[in-house]
Amino acid sequence: MKTFLLLGLGRLGSKLAKELSETGHEVMVVDRNEDRVNRVMPYVTSAKIGNAVDPDLLASLGVSNFDACFVTMHTDFQNSLEATYQLKELGAKMVVSRAESDTHEKFLLKNGADRVIYPEKQVAKWTAIKYISEDIGSFMELDGEHCILEVDVKDDWVGKRMDEIHIRKKYDINVLAIKKGDEMNMKIGPDTVFEEGDLMVVLGSIKKIKKCFKY
Known about the structure:
Helix content is about 35%, strand content about 25%. By secondary structure, the protein is α/β, with parallel strands linked by helices. α1 (about 10-20) links the parallel β1 (about 5) and β2 (about 25-30). The strands form two sheets. Strands 3-2-1-4-5-6 form a six-stranded parallel beta sheet, with helices on both faces. A five-stranded antiparallel beta sheet has the order 7-8-11-9-10.
């Protein structure tokens, strides 16, 4: 079981608090809006009503004891920067902050955020990829340069074995699994044969995946 501190109970913060709590972890939340705090009280471990950038309040929380601290406030650019900075100054192990723009993301990283989540940007990218090509299924970006993608088997690969196509050598892409209907086969070897209707789960650089699957 892990412990999390969450500052800001907007839509993302409230949903994140609930998800973390429902998976069996301890969650403390802070928000200045009493109604928001009351709405999450049934499923969080503890909650405080107050200004999430108040130095005295943050110091009283023992932020260094949490496995991760989330800054999910998004209506105030300056407050999110201050909260991120203060959490790191107080010894937070991991600070994950929400960004609302590319500029916001850069400043958060400069102010001490270990990771930045940018929901609108991530959803926009996934949606664009999804509808640019009908062959694309699930998409998960890993670090800005690499991703895991679910994609239809290329027509000219159907009926061929892995060792005939040389996917890793030729395209520098790793096939992690093959999905047939609802069944996921993760035992992929040189003699694995692709069949029509198969979905592949592949890992590689976004640039090389785009080139291979032409999207």
